[in-house]
Amino acid sequence: MARISYLSYTAREFALDEDFQQWVLQPDVRNVFWERWLQQHPEKEAVIREARQLVQGIGFRSYSLTAGEKEQLWEAVWNGLEEDTVQPQTTVRKTWWRRSWKYAAALLIGACLSGGFWFWKGGNKPVLLSTYTRLGEVKTFLLPDSSAVTLNADSKLLYAEQPGRHREVWLDGEAFFHVKHTRNDAKFVVHTYDKIDVEVLGTQFNVNSSGKEIVVVLQQGSIKLDIGDKGSNHPTEMYLHPGEMLRYNKQDGDFSKSSVNAGKFTSWHTGRLMMEDYTLADAAAFMQQVFGKTVIVKDTQLLKYKVSGSMPLIYNADTMLVQLQKVFRMQFNQKGDEVWIQKK
């Protein structure tokens, strides 16, 4: 049987190839083709390495719920997915509660799983999967629609895809999305639990809901934001273009749009920390989000101290503290989950 020419393949295309998946997932079964192909094309080694990581990042697991619990969970999510069939004038509060059901379902699933990733599809029900990361952990994986997602530390994600219809994601934490455009122009919508919906067709963007604000940064393509307005109970629509950022305050609902260097906010998914006017306060927020460390600074003026540059991201709290200590030229003293900072 003739083999496919893989020379033009991207890492994602390799990861979707069944023969390649078998080679990665069954290392005890020798696959001469792939061994020879890699020897003949050493220039593709980096792409193959990335593709292997994508495939290995997907571990399929089963529910640990009872049959009754599964049915209740499915009803909650499935009913929520039908929210667009209700008349607009009656959907405002119902939609919010249905989305709350979905978010609760994501948390419930995460609590009931022994592993970090599961996948299920049956009958006319949607494709449904969930994954999460722990503190100091990052995962990159492919969704069933071939979109790639990198999930930052201490984050949760729930994905649902209705056959022939739109794709939806519920995110708690931070993720970088590379969304795959579909032939039928299926919507791809990212929900956060604070009334922010990000709707896209094919694009690259970052969503961070881990702190006091929700921050959406667009790197490529275009996205539409639906922002809940507490005063009028009607969402505000806003479009972002590449290099633009939305900040939404969870407490009072205020939001603003600005132009930024998108790489500063998205470079983490490539393994680098971009520090453009990077303050000690930014470093403190990073250590809290990624490692659960609380930074304590008696002289609050130090929090305004800025540096610029870049450095590799290493998901080890001690190593990152050493690097940040050198960058800011300050003394970092760690006591459990607290980090005390002072001038040298």
Automatic annotation (TrEMBL):
Q: Which GO terms describe its molecular function?
A: sigma factor antagonist activity
- The protein's name is DUF4974 domain-containing protein
Where does this protein come from, organism-wise? Chitinophaga solisilvae
